[in-house]
Amino acid sequence: MKSNYFSGFCLNNEKELFCDYLIENDFTLSGFSYGAIKVFEEALNSDKRVDLIQLFSPAFFQTQNEKFIRMQLMFFKKDSKSYCENFLKNISYPSSVDVTKYFKEGSYEELETLLTYKWSKEKINELLEKGTKIEVYLGKEDKIIDSKKAYEFFKDFSTVYFMKKHGHILKGL
């Protein structure tokens, strides 16, 4: 495996934001938002031992309609700079954490992947059957994903930590 931590969309080296929750060892993979998708797929397709995956605010858009996804992609394509500035502001909410130092320009393809990714109950069960445990961390005040719908989806397969007064980067006021 290349890395044990996978970054979110438009971010790089933001792992320190999750140090309160992060378990670091050779058998744990962690990822934030878009990185949670990458972690899940890595663990599912790896022949190496993975005891635990930690999904911090996993990109969960499968309850959104096609129009929402098209609009997000259109806004990004039209003005990626403004889209990313707004995105960084929204991932920080409700905290005052400045995430601009972690900014790395994301691509249209990455955004499209995270918006259209479908979390599959069958794939999750396949991973659980391999002996991998799943932890999901969600903030109730998340402005990026619908954390309540994500909670409803993941609660039957994993340990879910649902944090009141916390947003997408799992920081509160």
From TrEMBL:
Protein name, as recorded: Alpha/beta hydrolase
Organism, as annotated: Arcobacter nitrofigilis (strain ATCC 33309 / DSM 7299 / CCUG 15893 / LMG 7604 / NCTC 12251 / CI)
Organismal lineage: Bacteria, Pseudomonadati, Campylobacterota, Epsilonproteobacteria, Campylobacterales
